[in-house]
Structure formats: C-alpha cells, structure tokens
Amino acid sequence: MTTTPATVGKAPQRHTLDLSNTSTVPLGRLVKVEMRKMVDTRAGLWLIVAIVAITALITVIVFFAGSDSDHTFIGYMGGTAGPQAFLLPVLGILLVTQEWGQRTGMVTFTLEPHRGKVIAAKVLAALLFGLIAVAIAVVGAALATTLSGDPGAWDNIGLDDFGKFALLQVTGVLQGLAFGLIFLNSAAAIVTYFVLPIAFSIVTSVWSALRDIAPWVNLGTSQQPLFSAQHLSGEQWAQLVTGTLIWVVLPFLAGLIRVLRAEVK
What we know:
mainly alpha
C-alpha cells in the first residue's frame, strides 16, 4: 500500500454537511405527500374510486327506485351516508398501515424525523378526504334533487344537516386512522374496526345492566341521531361526545404513543 506525499503524516480530512440553515419540511407539503400516497398505491386508489362510484350509484338507485319520500335532499344524503361511513374508515386505516406493511416507513421518518408532524399530516389528509367525500355526496344529492323536480324536496334543510353529515363521515375516517395507529397492520386494524363495535353492541343489547348506558358508551348508538333530520338535544350531544372519546380519541392517543415509540424496520 502506498501513500502520496501530500497525505503522509496528515490526518484525513473529514467533511461535514451543515444543515443548520436548512428549513424544515412544511406541514402542507407533508399533507400533499400523504394524500398522494393514497392515489399512488393500488389499494388506496381503488378504494377512492369505490367511494366515489358507490356514492354515485346509491344516488342513482334512490332516484329511480326510491319512494316519493326519498326524493328529497335529505333522502339522497341519507342514502349515501351508510356506504361512505362503511368505506371511509378503511381509507383512514390505509393512510397509516400501508407504509408499515410495505416497509416504506423508514423512508418517511428519515426524510421527516419528527413523527408527530407526520401523524399530524396524516390526520389533516384524512380530514380532507372525508370532506371531499362529503362534498361529492352533497353535489350528487343536489343534482338528483333538482332533477326530481319536487318543489318540497328542499324543505327543512339547514346548515346543521350538512354539519351532522360531515361530522359523521369525519369521525369515521378518524376512527379508522386511530385503529390503524394501534395495530400498524391493515388486516388486523380492518377486522378489529368492524368486529369490535359489533361485538360490543351485542353485549350491550343482551346485558340488561348495560342497555341503559349504551348510548353513552356505544358510538354506533350515539351516532344514530346524526342520520335523522331532527335537531339533537343536549343529552344526545353529550352521548355523542362520550362515545367519540371512547372509540376515537382514546384509541388515537394509544396509537400515537405506539407510533412515537415503535421501532421502524
């Protein structure tokens, strides 16, 4: 092994990369990246297509096969509420789990080491997806109501009706996000999300001691007034808050702690 005279007796030079003046990644850019991830993956893309297609299909079915009482703006919105509430939580789950299942999380947290910021971007992306789904349902319902030609189809519509519909869908996608954070596995999160509430509802309906408190601890029960055109009472709002705390907020906090501490592989 030979060395050049210029390097004999000298310590090798070490070059360092100064990042002190480099700006952090903006939160808005992270949100765009999270939304693009859903479109770039096959599962996410087809799920979004399914949400849009099923929303349009339900509106068409109600238009042609529904009764006269269904040919109202509230009737069309109610028809799309169920399918969207079924599919949007899966979208929230995939927002979290697909990069852990496909092992791209290491790239994500290398480019943005602040995991809390990444989770915040996922939450905002989930909210945007939920609001986009609501907007699609509103546009479809408005178009179908206009084509129905019934002048009374627009009666008894208030801003609270739009708020209740948006709250229902946004809560669902955030609950899916929370279950995804807990399990970090698509299959486990999806199965648990659908099975656990059903099992809990069966227990509360069979066990008479829990039947009276079911609206306070069962999110599905406390969300039932959101499907109606009636105004919610103070007690119903309180039941909705407690159900959301149990089934959305607490799982989200537990999942957040797990993601902040989990080893990225």
